Structures are given as structure tokens and as C-alpha cells.
Amino acid sequence: MSTAEAIASSPPLLSVEGVTKHFSGVTALSDVSLEVRPGEILGLLGENGAGKSTLLKILSGVMPPSSGRIVFDGADYAPSSPQDAKRHGIVTIYQELSLIPTLTVAENIFIGRAPLGPLGLVSWRGMEDASRAIIARVGLDIDPSTPVSSLSVAEQQLVEIARALSLKSRLIIMDEPTSALTETEVQKLMSIMDRLRKDGVAIMFVTHRLEEASAICDRMTVLRDGRLAGHLDRDGQPIQIPKIIEKMVGRAASELYARPTQRDVAGAVRLSVRGLRTVRDPLAPHAIVLEGVDLDLKAGEILGVAGLVGSGRTELARAIFGADRIAAGIITLDGKPIAPASPADAIKLGIGLVPEDRKHQAIFAALGILNNFSIASLGRYSNGAGFMAERREREALAGYRKALSIRMASPEQAIEGLSGGNQQKVILARWLARDPKVLIVDEPTRGVDVGAKAEVHQILVQLAARGIAIMMISSELPEVLAVSDRIVTMRRGRITGEMPGIEATEEKLMELMALDRKQEVTQ
Amino acid sequence: MTSTTEQTERSGINIARLLMSFGPLMFLAVLIVIFTVLKPSFIDPINLFNILRQISITGLIALGMTFVILTAGIDLSVGSLLAFCGMVAAVVAKGGTANTLSLSTTGTLGYGWFAALLAAVIVGALAGGVQGFAITRLKVPPFVVTLGGLTVFRGLTLTISNGGPISGFDASMRWFGTGLIGPVPVPAIIFAIAAILCHIVLRYTRYGRAVYAVGGNAEAARLSGLRVDRILISVYVIVGFFAGLAAFVLSARLNSSEAVAGIGYELTVISAVVIGGTSLFGGIGSVGGTVVGAALIGVLQNGLQFNNVSSYTQSIVIGLILILAVAFDRWLKSRVRR
């Protein structure tokens, strides 16, 4: 308690005062203030588009603020470049790691400042010895001459943190550091963050994962629509997640994820998967493979698939959809065995997939909404000679525009110009146009703003009511709980549990998604 | 408040988008005006048709290249393939390589122009198909496959022709290169018809939609059920077909198939497509743009020639314009994005 008081009374290491940032007429950040003190972990939270990345870019020297003042360590702080920010002692670790994969751990840590020997040549021995000591500080026990490309994402992240420490950094900004980590790796990172905090390093932890933020942050600053939504303090016990959500969305969490009314799910088994295994790619030995998945999906139900990143949930979707190679197992659709060798095969059979990564896997950024909409059903909207029947196509789009309330200017508008939620609705319309029997949606509301999330959920429920069998993969447990009729959990390429939606709670699901937990408790 | 800013932004975007689609056309108009002012006889129909005849060979190949570049591919082999197809056409037209260097213009020993045309386009399409197969199945990048093709087809051409030309075709074949319909040169008409067909295919058919989609985002196209490999192979078949057609027209025009024909054409062709606004990264572009791009290069060459600018200087100017055209395009896009 006394240390906490000491921290609270110590002068801030970083203080941001009324910072505003405009981009050609758009205000990305408006009058935002916050403070970080030495030896504390400040959570920076907010929905997508809340202004977190803009603030990070300003702090890390990528761009200057339009107005406002930043004070670091008692002096005005206006970095001219990311290098300059590092010189001041602020290091930012981004989601896309900045290590050079072909170089070794030691070379990466000492990049641009390799210790020199007597002849002015690089002292490899000195570099590796020093590296060993540096990475030990973050609990890494690997040979510093290992090339970075052969490390796991978690290990690479630790190497980056180690490098930051070796640069005498006093503030480490971590942008979504846990998004690609397994549960155990997250725990490890957390304990290292805790250790750094005790060493007096200040950490700014930018994350979407409220559980993690709640567990580790001393204080939180929440942004909403580019403005400060509020500060939260730990006060001796973890900051309550509903409080965070309320600040983030500006309304109570219970409104956000209102559970749809209980529906009758009568349907027969549509899709059945038995003993599904995928091929291990020798070029990607760390990639997740399915290790024998059994699953039934009924007509008219929404099956929630909950699992952390790396649990195999996306791999399951891709295997069913014919996008990844299957090593063993049987898939049947309406009782008939199917073996889709490509997405085209799966689509012909009546399966649709709304992929996880909208930007890279679903949208055609340069094309208009109309072309994006109809790309999976060109046959339906063209005549026998191969000419597009544009009038029919436009009518169909107009129908979905109304039914899904897609907010757009015109069918020719580039899809890039739409918000994430409206883009996702166009992708949903793309599959609805095919009238699928099975629709797999992978992270349907990723990058979708809060208001549109509820709309997407409503759409999924309506589709299920029409008899479509829906498999919804999501890492957001509240979403899984809100929409699913039945829930299965996955971990390490296997199904680890199943329960009806009404019986599920976040706690039950978390336990099934992370079975290791029990072992950790007993340790 | 927000709606008004949105609206002004939208109109700003429209101006930029308008410039993006009509920029090259406006530049072409400006060039024509400048050359006409410099030398009024530039605008004579005779000269204009001359330009059309000049651009029709590379223009035909550029039409095919538009399909390839729309898929984010490239074909460097078109110049060599043109020479190869021309040689094949000559061999068929004349009934064998034995007639090499025959000066007979009335000889009817061969299989006639139709068989020659057919042979040229079929060989071109097949050669494109083989390259497309290597790109999709062997996973060798288009740049490398067609760089290899550039050497292979030139070597094949030199092999069948023994290094020399095959010359002397009958009048019915030569008509395709030198004939006129009214005042309009036949090659220009062939180019115009081909351009219209390509435009229709890209703009109004499901195949065209698929080409744009594959170029715009190949992974999303695959996950939308498109047979990406087949579409990729098809665009190389198309550019090969056009190399064959262009070869036939060129041989007919020169009354000779040269083993060294088409050297460097790939660069002119790619320049025309890129100046016309088609993105080398795929997914963006149009046949109209390519026609304008080809015309731009033709007008520049002809106009500079007209004003006694040396061909050395012409090269410098065309190279610089290529770079400026892309820089301008980039600049416009950055404005649209923002």
C-alpha cells in the first residue's frame, strides 16, 4: 500500500495536456490529457477509432500534435522522429514487431550500436554475452545467436522489450501486446510487466482485452471518439470490467450485449464434422493444426465457437470451407459426405465464410460496393453468355441495403469509404445472395464500432431464424454469450467443451478455453 | 455540422476521381493542341491516321497487357512472342521456311492469310497459357517466367528462321497491314474493334469482374469462390493471343516477318498501360485508359518526329512522361484516400 501511495504522490513521468490532432478537417484527437507515473502500468483503452493509435503515434514521434503540450521527465517533449523518441527514453512496441527476422537475437538487440573490439570490428562475443544478460531480465532463456525468425511471437515480443530495456527506456508503450499470444504466454508477459513495474519502469498498456487490463493496470485512461471518456483507478482491487465498458461505449454494458430472446432451435443436423485434422505445414512448424475435431451444426442454430488466438478456431473454419488442406476426418452436409478441395467447392455446396481479417481476406478495397457484393454470386447475376445482369444485381443490392440497413452513398462508392460495420454488412450480403445452408462467421464484429456490433448480432439471429446454420467464431466472450444458442470451446486444435447458451457464463467458458489454468492455480 | 464537412469532402473526392479517370485524356488533348500550334499540318487526317497505324501494333498487345496488369501480373515476353508468332504466320502463309527470302509477291504456295492468322493467334495463346501455367502451378513469379519467355521465344524465332526474315506475302494478307477502308488504315480498325471488345469484356461480363477481383485481392477472390489460377492463366492466354494478332498485322504491314521484330516492345506496351492509369499492383485500370496511353505515346513520338526532335530525345521525353504520369496518379490517389 505504501508503495502505491509513493507512486501516487510521485511527480508524473509523462503528462499529456490537452492534446488535439486534426487530419485535413477530421479531428482524430480532441483535448486529451493523461499522466503516467514511474513504476505504474497505465491502461489506454477505447474502441477502434477512439483515437488510441493517433495518441500512440504522437507519443512515439511518428507525427506531431496539432495543439496541446506534452511533458516528459519535467521537460517539454516534442520528438522529431521515432528515433528521437527512443533517445528521450520512450519506446513503443507495436503489434507488428519491428525485429529483423533474418538477424539473430543479439544482432537485433544491438542493431546500430554493436559493441566494437580492438580493431573497430564487431565484437560478437561481447555482443552475445551482453544480450544473454539483457534477455534474462525478461525471463528469456535462449541462445542469443538464434535467428529471430525461429522464435515464437511471444519470444520475439520479449526480445523487443529486452531491447527497450537495454536502451534505458523509462516508458514502454505496448500496443496490443497480447493479441497473438497464448494464455500461458500472456501470463508470462504479465509477470514480466509486473517485475518491470517494480523496477520503476512506466508502462502504457494499450489493449482491447479488458480482462487483462483489469488484472494488471494500476490506472486506466479511456478514450471515446477521440475524446477523453474518463480515468479509472485501481483502489486496491482490479478495476471492474463493466465500468470500463461503460466508459468505452458511454452506456451500460448490459444494454450493449442484450441477450436475444430465447428461440426454438428445432433443426436437424446440417453439418457434421468427425475427427477433423489438418496438415502441418513443414514451412510453418509453429502454426496451429486441428488435432481431431468433432462437431455438429444444426439448421437454424447459432453455434458459438469460443477460443483464444491460437486455439484452432479459424483453422476449423478454413478446413470446413476448403481453404486449408485436410489430413483426416469426415465432413457431412445434410447427411452426405463432402470433401471441398477449395473454397469454390465449398461455396457450391452451400457453405459461406465471412473471414476473420476483413481487409486482407474479404474486401476488394479498390472496387465499388456493387462489385464487392456480387463477387461470390457472379453466376446468379449474369446471363448465359456471361454478361452481367446489372439491373438484377443492383436490385438485389438495394434489397440487402434496406434489410441490413447498410449506410452507403451509392453502389459505385468504394467499399473502403464505408465504416467497418457497413463493410461487414456488405460482406454478409455477399453470402446471403447465395442463400447458403451453412454460414461461418469468424470474428464478425472485429473492427466494427459498438453500435453496429449489435446490428450485426441482430442480423445473425435473423438469419438463423430463416433456417441457416450459423457457426460464429469469436474471441469476445460477451458476444459469444449474447448470440449463441449453443457454445463449444476450443483449445490447441481440439474441442474442449460444449454447453447450451443459457447455461454458459464467461467464467465457465474461460476455464474450458484455458485448461492450463487449473495447473497454474495449484502451482 | 458533420454532414456538411462530409459533403464538401465528397465533392473534393469527386474532382480527384474525375481527374484520375480523365487526366491522361486531358494530357493527350493538350499535347495535340501544342503540336498543332507548333505545326498545323500535325492535325491533318493523313497524319492522324498515320499515328493510328503506328500505335495499332503495340496498342493491340497493350490491350492484352491490360488484363495481365489488372491481375497484378506482368508479361515481359510479348516482344519476343510477337516475333515468334510472326515467324509462325510467315511459315504458314508461305508453306514452309524454304521460301525464305523469296521476293515473289504473288506466290500462292502457302496456306493463305487465314491459316497464317489462325496459326499466329493460336501459337500466341498457347505460349501465354504455358507461361500462365508456370506462374500458377510452379509458383514462379510472372516477372521471372516471362523474362525467361522473352529469351526462349526469341531463341525459337531465330531457330526456325535461321536468323533471317521470311518475306513476301500475297496481296490478301498484306491488306491487313497496308489496306484502307475509306480513309482508315485496316490495322487501326482492327485495333479499334479489339479495344471495344476488350472494354465490353472487362466492363460488362462476369469474367471481367473476376479479373478485377483477382487483381484487387487474390486471397479474398479465392475465399469468394473464384478459381484464381484459371483466371490468371487466362490473362496470359489473352495477352499471347494479342501478341499473335499484332504479329500477323505487323508482318502484313512490313510484308516480312523479321527475327528481330518486336525488340523492346514489352516496354512500350507496359508504358502505354501504366500511363493509361492501370495500377501495377492490380485491380485498378481500364481499356479506355490503355487506348489513351497508347495514343499518348504515339502522338508524342509522331509530334516530336514532326518537329525534328531526334529519336534519342524522344526516348528521354517518353521515359520522363511515364514516371510523371505514375507520380501524378499516386498524388491523386493520396488525395482521394485522405
The profile of the biggest β sheet of chain A is: 6 strands, mixed
Structural class of chain B: mainly alpha
The percentage helix of chain A is: 25-40%
Instruction: Estimate what percentage of residues of chain B fall within beta strands.
Output: under 5%
Low-confidence stretches of chain A: 516-523
State the distance separating the first and last CA atoms of chain B: 19 Å
Order of helices and strands of chain B: HHHHHEHEEHHHHEHHH
Let me know the average pLDDT of chain B. Answer: 88
The helix content of chain B is over 70%
pLDDT under 50 segments of chain B (min length 5)?
Answer: 1-12
Write structural notes for this entry:
The complex is a heterodimer of chains A (523) and B (338). With 523 residues, chain A is of the alpha/beta class. Chain A folds into 2 domains: 2-249, P-loop containing nucleotide triphosphate hydrolases (Rossmann fold, 3-Layer(aba) Sandwich); 269-365 and 435-522, Rossmann fold, CATH 3.40.50.300. In chain A, 35% of the residues lie in helices and 24% in strands. Chain A contains 20 helices and 20 strands. Chain A has helices at 2-9, 52-59, 82-88, 105-109, 124-136, 153-166, 183-198, 210-216, 241-249, 253-256, 313-320, 343-349, 358-362, 369-374, 390-403, 420-432, 450-465, 477-483, 506-513, 516-522, and strands spanning 14-23, 26-36, 41-45, 67-72, 75-76, 90-93, 171-175, 202-206, 219-224, 227-233, 269-278, 291-298, 302-306, 326-333, 336-338, 351-354, 438-442, 469-474, 486-491, 494-500. Chain A has a 6-stranded mixed beta sheet with strand order 6-7-8-3-9-10, with helices on both faces. A 6-stranded mixed beta sheet of chain A has the order 16-17-18-13-19-20, sandwiched between helices. The two termini of chain A are 26 Å apart. The model of chain A is unreliable at 516-523 (pLDDT under 50). With 338 residues, chain B is mainly α. Chain B has one domain (42-337). Chain B is 75% helix and 2% strand. Chain B contains 13 helices and 4 strands. Chain B has helices at residues 2-38, 45-70, 78-94, 112-137, 142-161, 171-178, 186-204, 206-216, 218-223, 228-254, 265-275, 287-306, 311-337, and strands spanning 166-167, 180-181, 184-185, 256-257. In chain B, the strands form 2 sheets. In chain B, strands 1-4 form a two-stranded antiparallel sheet. The relative contact order of chain B is 0.19. The chains are: A alpha/beta (523), B mainly alpha (338).
